[in-house]
Write a structure and sequence with these properties.
Chain lengths: 163, 149
C-alpha cells in the first residue's frame, strides 16, 4: 500500500476530527488487515474511483457515534436518526479534504456518496489492496478508519474528470 | 454557538434570507444554526441542484449557500443555471472538496465565493458579509430579555 496515497486521509481525519469536535485527537493503534471488514457500530463507507480506487470506512461504536453527533450539533439530545447522518457528513468532510490534497498533487478521481453500514461491510479486499486500520482517540471515544486504496495504473493518462 | 452581530438587509433592516443547498440533512441543519447565529433566516432548503433552482425562483433569497457534490445535479451546474436566470444571485459554494479546479470552475460559473468544510462560523460570517457587500449592514444586537435599557 502506498503511504503517499494514505497520508492525506490520515492528516484530513486528524484535522477534521479536531476541528469538528473542538478538542485535540491522538492517533491510536495502526494495523494492516486482509479480512472483510466488520463494523463496530455505525460505519460510513465512501468509495473512490479514478486514478486512485478503493474505499474508506469510518466506524464508531454507537455511544461514540452519539457523542460525535451531539458535539457536531451542539445538542446533547441529538435525534437518533441524525446520528448516521452526522457520521456520513464527518466522513464526507474527511474524504473531501484528502481529495483536495491528492487532486492538487495530480491525482484525479470521483468520490461516491457515503453509504451507511451497521453490519459486516465491504467486499473482501483485493490482492493488492490490503486495508490499513487505524484509530483516533477523541474526546467522545475511539474513531476507527479503515482504508483500502490503490493506484489505478490503467487510468493513468486517461484524464478522468475530477469530481 | 457563538453569537455574531446580526447581518441585516440594508434596504429594510430585515434579516438576510438564505437558501441552503446540501444533500446532507445534517449539514443543512448545521448551516441553519450558523445562519441563526448571524441573525439570518432560512428562506428555503434543497437537497440537490434541481430543487435548488426551483427553490431559488420560489424564495428569492438574498444569498445561497451551495454544496458541490450532490445527486441529480451538482452544485456548480445549479449555480450556473441560477446565475443565468438571475445574474445578481449571490452564491457561496460550501464544500469539503476544495481543490483549485473546483474553485475556479465554480467562480467561472458565477459563484461569488468558496468556503471549505468543515465550516467555521467565523469564516462563513465574514464571507457572507463580503458577498452581500452594500446590500447588508450590521444591525443592533438583540437586547436580552429583562435587560435594563
Amino acid at each position: 500500500m502506498r503511504m503517499d496515497l494514505i497520508q492525506p486521509f490520515i492528516n484530513a481525519a486528524d484535522a477534521v476530527l479536531a476541528q469538528t469536535l473542538q478538542a485535540p485527537t491522538t492517533v491510536g493503534e495502526v494495523s494492516m488487515e486482509e479480512e472483510a471488514y466488520r463494523t463496530k457500530g455505525i460505519a460510513a463507507l465512501v468509495r473512490v474511483a479514478g486514478d486512485i480506487e478503493g474505499r474508506v470506512i469510518f466506524d464508531l461504536e454507537p455511544a461514540t457515534a452519539r457523542g460525535v453527533a451531539s458535539r457536531l450539533t451542539g445538542d446533547e439530545a441529538t435525534d437518533a436518526a441524525m446520528v448516521p447522518e452526522a457520521i456520513c457528513e464527518l466522513a464526507n468532510q474527511v474524504i473531501g479534504n484528502a481529495v483536495t490534497v491528492l487532486n492538487d498533487q495530480g491525482f484525479h478521481f470521483k468520490v461516491m456518496p457515503p453509504e451507511i453500514h451497521a453490519a459486516e461491510c465491504g467486499a473482501q479486499n483485493t490482492e493488492d489492496t490490503e486495508a490499513l486500520v487505524m484509530s483516533f482517540e477523541t474526546v467522545t471515544g475511539t474513531v476507527f478508519m479503515n482504508i483500502a486504496m490503490r493506484h489505478n495504473r490503467r487510468r493513468k493518462g486517461e484524464g478522468l474528470a475530477a469530481d | 454557538m457563538e453569537q455574531f452581530a446580526p447581518i441585516v438587509r440594508s434596504k429594510d433592516m430585515r434579516p438576510v434570507r438564505y437558501l441552503v443547498v446540501d444533500d446532507s440533512i445534517f449539514a443543512r441543519k448545521n448551516l441553519a444554526r450558523m445562519i441563526e447565529s448571524f441573525g439570518g433566516q432560512v428562506a428555503g432548503e434543497a437537497g440537490d441542484g434541481c430543487t435548488a433552482i426551483t427553490e431559488y425562483s420560489r424564495t428569492q433569497p438574498d444569498i445561497v449557500l451551495m454544496d458541490i457534490t450532490m445527486p441529480q445535479m451538482e452544485g456548480i451546474e445549479a449555480a450556473e443555471r441560477i446565475v443565468r436566470q438571475a445574474p445578481d444571485a449571490r452564491i457561496v459554494m460550501v464544500s469539503s472538496v476544495g481543490y483549485q479546479e473546483n474553485i475556479i470552475a465554480a467562480l467561472q460559473k458565477g459563484a461569488r465565493h468558496f468556503v471549505q468544510k468543515p465550516v467555521k462560523a467565523e469564516v462563513l460570517y465574514e464571507v457572507v458579509k463580503y458577498v452581500l457587500g452594500d446590500a447588508a449592514t450590521l444591525g443592533a444586537e438583540a437586547t436580552p430579555a429583562g435587560a435594563i435599557q
